[in-house]
């Protein structure tokens, strides 16, 4: 069954249990049933999403949620959203958990490379020859892409020097498949470039000019793309997640859970497995440093510390999409864990943003945790690993709030910075508040690009 998203649908979430300092575990009751547009005679626009899983990485989930929140109003009617995902099983569970009726089609990388690409090439050849071609689209992912009016690539970051060759090939193939099927593709706001390596430059030049629109997420990405030679299809846009909505019941439930542990405002910590991996390569014990920071902050700042995993796979081991094992290791190393609230669970993107909204300060290495802090006017300190952080903070005049993981000299230095930023909380919140409306408006360019890419007759049955 295909999902219908109408204006006003959102991930509400049900009540949670939990309380007391230390671990908190949520027990999720059944979610509200999704709302469907009445009347089968209404033509619905079909949007397929690529490059983002609703499970695991809650940054990607934030972008998907932003689409679900805004597409009906932005495109002027009911919208059918179909998710083409590399994590289909987890996504189906997460969408059901959130009360969202979004069908999921599997496109795991191996199947994409060995099955979907050859079939898409065949279908593309038949299509160019004006011969019947849809029969070739046997896999569910190809059927979903073939029936889409427009395809939204939500990769977040792609075509970046320094990434493994196989990742660059994946970046190219994931958007080439819908192009072969004749579908317009919009690369929604994401970080791209630089393009100094020959492989990255050639793949990007081969693919990106063929897209309906490419939305660089900041000045650095836009500059890299223009240096590559792109111009006609560039649509600069801030991150989609600036437009994600948090329902009032979610805010109220999270506020109540936190208040049951300690009065706020809180110092929110969102560690990153990606940064831990990078630190290990440089001989930095990131878990030990973060544990020392959390203990010292809990003792010295006067704010209860709350730790969250912004990417979570509860039953999986440590990987770049799962911060929970890292958070558990940090929590295990704490000298006084009873002074720290640790959400040892897989929170929805709306719930994570609601936690961050209650913070006096956020310390994070997760990009979309940073976006949530800006959206909620919460001062922040970012320990980052690429230009994608600075290019978002720059327009806010807050580039000083980002430090590289290779600049980490120890917990004491980070704590000093935390103390300084807490003292400047009102000033920083005011700076964010002044610049936020422009960022939200600029995020709307993603929806303008999607609307402009819609072909004539969009919404007709395929």
Descriptive key words:
disordered N terminus, Rossmann fold, 44% helix, 462 residues, 16 strands
State the CATH architecture of the largest domain: 3-Layer(aba) Sandwich
Distance between the termini: 15 Å
- Number of DSSP-assigned strands: 16
Strand content: 5-15%
Radius of gyration: 22 Å
CATH H-tier superfamily of the largest domain = 3-Deoxy-D-manno-octulosonic-acid transferase, N-terminal domain
Please, how many helices? Answer: 17
Q: Give the CATH level 1 class of the largest domain.
A: Alpha Beta
Spans of 5+ residues with little confidence (pLDDT < 50)?
1-12, 14-20, 27-40
Please identify the structural class as seen in this structure: alpha/beta
Mean pLDDT: 90
Tell me the number of structural domains: 2
Shape: globular
Give a short overview.
The chain has 462 residues and is α/β, with parallel strands linked by helices. The chain contains 17 helices and 16 strands.
Could you please describe the fold and organization of this structure?
With 462 residues, the protein is α/β, with parallel strands linked by helices. The protein has two domains: 22-237 and 444-453, Rossmann fold; 248-439, Glycogen Phosphorylase B (Rossmann fold, 3-Layer(aba) Sandwich). Helices cover 44% and strands 15% of the residues. The protein contains 17 helices and 16 strands. It has helices at residues 58-75, 88-97, 109-128, 140-147, 165-180, 198-207, 219-228, 248-259, 273-281, 286-300, 324-333, 349-357, 367-375, 387-393, 411-423, 425-443, 445-453, and strands at residues 22-24, 45-50, 56-57, 79-85, 104-106, 150-153, 157-158, 185-192, 213-216, 266-270, 305-307, 311-312, 340-343, 359-364, 380-384, 402-404. The strands form three sheets. Strands 1-13-11-10-14-15-16 form a seven-stranded parallel sheet, with helices on both faces. Strands 2, 4, 5, 6, 7, 8 and 9 form a seven-stranded parallel sheet that branches. It has a two-stranded antiparallel sheet with strand order 3-12. Helix 14 links the parallel strand 15 (380-384) and strand 16 (402-404). Helix 8 (248-259) crosses helix 12 (349-357). The two termini are 15 Å apart. Residues 1-12, 14-20 and 27-40 have low confidence and may be disordered.
């Amino acid at each position: 069954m295909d999902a219908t998203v109408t204006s006003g649908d959102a991930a509400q979430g049900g009540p949670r249990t939990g309380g007391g300092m230390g671990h908190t575990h949520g027990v999720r009751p059944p979610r509200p049933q999704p709302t469907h547009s009445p009347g089968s005679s209404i033509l619905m626009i079909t949007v397929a999403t690529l490059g983002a899983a609703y499970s695991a990485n809650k940054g990607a989930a934030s972008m998907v949620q932003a689409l679900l929140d805004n597409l009906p109003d932005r495109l002027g009617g009911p919208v059918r959203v179909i998710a083409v995902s590399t994590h289909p099983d987890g996504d189906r569970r997460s969408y059901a958990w959130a009360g969202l009726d979004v069908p999921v089609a599997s496109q795991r990388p191996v199947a994409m490379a060995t099955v979907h690409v050859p079939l898409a090439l065949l279908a593309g050849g038949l299509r160019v020859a004006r011969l019947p071609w849809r029969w070739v689209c046997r896999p569910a992912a190809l059927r979903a892409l073939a029936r889409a009016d427009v395809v939204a690539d939500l990769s977040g970051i792609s075509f970046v020097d320094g990434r493994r060759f196989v990742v660059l090939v994946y970046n190219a193939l994931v958007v080439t498949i819908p192009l072969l099927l004749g579908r317009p593709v919009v690369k929604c706001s994401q970080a791209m470039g630089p393009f100094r390596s020959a492989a990255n430059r050639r793949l990007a030049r081969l693919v990106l000019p063929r897209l309906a629109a490419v939305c660089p997420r900041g000045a650095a990405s836009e500059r890299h793309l223009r240096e590559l030679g792109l111009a006609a299809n560039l649509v600069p846009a801030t991150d989609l997640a600036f437009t994600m909505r948090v329902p009032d019941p979610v805010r109220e439930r999270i506020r109540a859970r936190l208040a049951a542990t300690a009065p706020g405002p809180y110092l929110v910590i969102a560690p990153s497995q990606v940064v831990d991996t990078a630190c290990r390569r440089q001989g930095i014990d990131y878990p030990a440093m973060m544990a020392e920071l959390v203990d010292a902050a809990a003792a010295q700042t006067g704010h209860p510390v709350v730790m969250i995993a912004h990417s979570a796979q509860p039953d999986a081991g440590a990987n770049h999409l799962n911060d929970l094992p890292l958070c558990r290791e940090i929590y295990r190393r704490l000298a006084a864990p009873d002074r720290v609230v640790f959400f040892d669970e897989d929170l929805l993107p709306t719930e994570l943003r609601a936690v961050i909204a209650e913070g006096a300060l956020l310390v994070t290495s997760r990009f979309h945790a940073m976006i949530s802090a800006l959206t909620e006017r919460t001062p922040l300190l970012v320990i980052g690993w690429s230009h994608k952080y600075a290019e978002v903070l720059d327009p806010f005049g807050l580039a000083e709030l980002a430090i590289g993981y290779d600049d980490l000299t120890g917990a004491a230095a980070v704590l000093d910075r935390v103390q300084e930023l807490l003292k400047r909380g009102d000033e920083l919140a005011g700076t964010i508040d002044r610049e936020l409306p422009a960022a939200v408006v600029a995020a709307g360019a993603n929806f303008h690009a999607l609307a402009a890419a819609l072909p004539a007759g969009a919404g007709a049955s395929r």
